[in-house]
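Agenda item 2: S-adenosyl-L-homocysteine complex prediction
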Amino acid sequence: MREFEGKIIDESRQGQATIIEHTEKSNGKKLYLESYGCAMNFSDSEVVASILAKEGYQTTNDELEADVILINTCSIRDNAEQRVRRRLTNFKKRKQQQPGLIVGVLGCMAERLKNKLLDEEKLVDIVVGPDAYRKLPELITEVEGGQKAVNVLLSREETYADISPVRLDDKGVSSFVSIMRGCDNMCSFCVVPFTRGRERSRDPETIVKECKELFENGYKEITLLGQNVDSYRWNMTSKGEIKDASKPTVNFAQLLAMVAEIHPDLRIRFSTSHPKDMTDEVLETIAKYENLCKYIHLPVQSGNSNVLKRMNRGYTREWYLERIDAIRKIIPNCAISTDIIAGFCGETEEEHQDTLSLMEEVQFDFAYMYKYSERPKTLAERRFEDDVPEEVKGKRLAEIIQLQQQHSLKKNKQYIGQTHKVLVEGFSKRSKEHLSGRNDYNVKVVFPKKQAKIKDYVMVKITDCTAATLMGELI
Ligand code: SAH
Ligand code: SF4
Ligand code: F3S
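Presented output:
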């Protein structure tokens, strides 16, 4: 296991190009759009491609034939930004060979660095923040006219609710749907509130409509996305007051039910839950609907209450463990994964041991694990010193990863002998004779293909496993 940039998106998809269906008249120009970071960014890239497709741009997965190259970026940790910088430096060289090539940076790094990539470093022609994608056509026209173009305004309203991208990933099985944008939580380590702006929820009718369309187009699985899905609220203020009494209010549990009722064959996942906000009502809704996956990603970050306080997470170790108990009680056999940060400011050896003991207590099915990376402008950068030496961070992370490997293997071993419903997503990486999909618990299952096809739901008897994958036979 290694550090991932953003959850759900596995490492192999970092840098992937977005390709969408093209229905408008072509303007003769090709767009190459590459994405990094979390699922939210990949979902946004589809919105961006849709906006530009309306102007006649055709998406390509060959950067060499592109007239416009856009790169949708992530700022979550320093190494995420370094990777994008290397990419941009490459494109800069390309520009020397291909004058007229337009290169733009989108997403969180665009928002964080604003004019810097353009004026000081002269790496790109366009800088566009996550709330300004509707302006992209105009900005590209400005660049074609010889100017440099920047729009990094954040919005309190923009949710791109009306844009339902026509996706063309290679398989058409599983899709992301954003239900909200931004984050108001201000965890002290996190750059997201600065790069994504204030939290706002998307109109539930447009969410259900998009999910229905995806299902009608053959998609079988949808992942609802938000930085903190538990604070999804429609027609309600953050204090829970009703905004417009003539209209219904919708919270996350109700939204889950609305999407679950579209069709029993549409499987639904969501990310990310927040321990301080996750309600029993949400858990009861998951228990009620067979097609709501029995899998919750509940980032803990640390097992020590003082560290959690410095992180401004809004809960204690005890509160977190109580939420885990609630999951276990209301949804028996629910898989639980988490995020953990090693070596946050001031973290002592005892505090680190509390993270390990919490892991022992919970026995997570899976975890995304990171070394703390100080981010400019965050509360932690202003208030605390990044004082855990690099080698100590490394050692603690290694201990966390090693323990998690044991737990993941143990969990997977418990599945041997059981039969799981698997949605077939594609061929196994190793062999065309094997198919690969995921079970309800979000674990990858590989099995000999026989008569099964991509997009089928199949029953697989689990016969063997590693810490990351289950192997089985069709029944
Ligand atoms: N709201 C989302 C956050 C996305 S960031 C969520 O809770 O899932 C995903 C993860 O990256 C966080 O949970 C955290 O574990 C990690 N992370 C965020 N900022 C970090 C930093 N400065 N250093 C190391 N890891 C960080
Ligand atoms: Fe960042 Fe915290 Fe918001 Fe997640 S909940 S995006 S970690 S500030
Ligand atoms: Fe990265 Fe921005 Fe997502 S910082 S993790 S792309 S919200």
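Discussion summary: Residues 419-474 form a domain with the OB fold (Dihydrolipoamide Acetyltransferase, E2P) fold (CATH 2.40.50).
Owner for follow-up: CH.
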